[in-house]
């Protein structure tokens, strides 16, 4: 059986320091709802990737648990350090702590479950991925915490039934599964490019845009794209306690898994109950803005977390009685 791989990505630059809210986090309006959502507090995001730099100052306090499913580190399941860089970058976009001297992720109060299923070369066996998804689905924290979103910036050309079953099981357990669309795009929305598990109907498949709100030329297009998020020159955490700007649908994906942590906090407080996976999907999609591209390129559009509050203010203005 073929292996599954990191969706190829581009390292644009590596930096020693960074003290800012990255542009992508701002673009999806995350800071505008931090107060309302308590920055995603109480929610756990499972990052299924190459591991994580557990000593990174922006991440060390965010990691609640983890497990290694690869052959790296002599198959030591307790060593889920990142020997690639990709997983650390994804984790930081989702939930880096908004400290004084580092960067803020989308949900700075959320916790991270690090699931290492890809080795230092960014390659993994399908069984590792399947086991990693099942681990995240069944995981329970020291205080009864459960995973509320799964983030997967990986993919392969093959539709493996066992992979589909693992994804379906997570979703049936109430966990939204967020997947990168893939970077085999040819800049033509009318031609389809598929990577699995992203292409499964049940997952939230994420395409990439740049900061000019243009679809990234590398972003896969197909009839299962759900949303788009920033994925070009994204600043986030990196190995060796550094920071890097990377490009790819891999970088767009954790913007959405982080956004889910914020949406869960807001919506479940409003409804005063736990929402189903379908309800969470609906709540997320309500917070999108179409960009004018074909649905095969942008799905429902760009994540815009504060859009409902903006609508509310607009309606209040319209409903004001002028004497």
TrEMBL record:
Domain Peptidase S8/S53: 40-288
Keywords annotated in UniProt: Hydrolase, Protease, Serine protease
Keyword Hydrolase on entry: yes
Catalytic site: 49, 86, 250
InterPro entries: Peptidase_S8/S53_dom, Peptidase_S8/S53_dom_sf, Peptidase_S8/S53_subtilisin, Peptidase_S8_Asp-AS, Peptidase_S8_His-AS, Peptidase_S8_Ser-AS, Peptidase_S8_subtilisin-rel, Subtilisin_Carlsberg-like
PROSITE patterns: SUBTILASE, SUBTILASE_ASP, SUBTILASE_HIS, SUBTILASE_SER
GO BP terms: proteolysis
Molecular function per GO: serine-type endopeptidase activity
Similarity comment text for this entry: Belongs to the peptidase S8 family.
Protein name: Major intracellular serine protease
Organism lineage string: Bacteria, Bacillati, Bacillota, Bacilli, Bacillales
């Amino acid at each position: 059986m073929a292996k599954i791989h990191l969706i190829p990505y581009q390292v644009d630059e590596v930096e020693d320091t960074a003290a800012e809210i990255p542009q992508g986090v701002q673009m999806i309006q995350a800071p505008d709802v931090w107060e309302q959502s308590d920055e995603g507090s109480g929610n756990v995001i499972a990052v299924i990737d190459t591991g994580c730099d557990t000593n990174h100052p922006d991440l060390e306090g965010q990691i609640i648990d983890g497990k290694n499913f690869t052959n790296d580190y002599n198959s030591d399941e307790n060593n889920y350090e990142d020997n690639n860089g990709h997983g650390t970058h994804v984790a930081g976009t989702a939930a880096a702590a908004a400290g004084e001297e580092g960067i803020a992720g989308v949900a700075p109060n959320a916790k991270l479950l690090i699931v290492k299923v890809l080795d230092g070369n960014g390659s993994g066996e399908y069984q590792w991925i399947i086991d990693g998804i099942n681990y995240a689905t069944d995981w329970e924290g020291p205080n009864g915490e459960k995973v509320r979103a799964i983030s997967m910036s990986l993919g392969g050309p093959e539709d493996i039934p066992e992979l589909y079953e693992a994804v379906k099981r997570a979703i049936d357990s109430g966990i939204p599964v967020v997947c990168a669309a893939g970077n085999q795009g040819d800049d033509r929305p009318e031609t389809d490019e598929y990577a699995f598990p992203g292409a499964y109907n049940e997952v939230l498949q994420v395409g990439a845009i740049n900061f000019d709100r243009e679809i990234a030329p590398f972003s896969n297009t197909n009839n299962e794209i759900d949303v788009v998020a920033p994925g070009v020159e994204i600043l986030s955490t990196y190995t060796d306690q550094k920071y890097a700007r990377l490009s790819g649908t891999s970088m767009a994906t954790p913007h959405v898994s982080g956004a889910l942590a914020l949406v869960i906090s807001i919506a479940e407080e409003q409804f005063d109950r736990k929402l189903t996976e379908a309800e969470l999907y609906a709540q997320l999609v309500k917070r999108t803005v179409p960009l004018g591209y074909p649905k095969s390129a942008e799905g429902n559009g760009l994540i815009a977390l504060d859009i409902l509050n903006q609508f509310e203010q607009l309606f209040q203005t319209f409903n004001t009685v002028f004497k």
